[in-house]
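Quick one, tokens below:
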């Protein structure tokens, strides 16, 4: 369900988003989502479609940034 909050880039932690719906909601591009996935964002697949839980996106955004110095 898309609401006015979603249009503003707000992610509901209890909502399950398709990859496309999350990209639209946040106004991000494929490259941004690919980078997030490489950095550990969890994506679940069912019947050929990818899903991201809002809480997983929020956890990803709140996680400390990993730099080459900290590796």
């Amino acid at each position: 369900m898309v609401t006015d909050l979603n249009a503003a880039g707000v992610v509901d932690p209890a909502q399950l988003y398709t990859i496309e719906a999350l990209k639209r909601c946040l106004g991000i591009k494929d490259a941004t989502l690919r980078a997030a996935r490489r950095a550990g964002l969890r994506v679940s697949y069912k019947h050929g479609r990818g899903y991201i839980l809002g809480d997983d996106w929020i956890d990803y955004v709140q996680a400390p940034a990993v730099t080459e110095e900290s590796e």
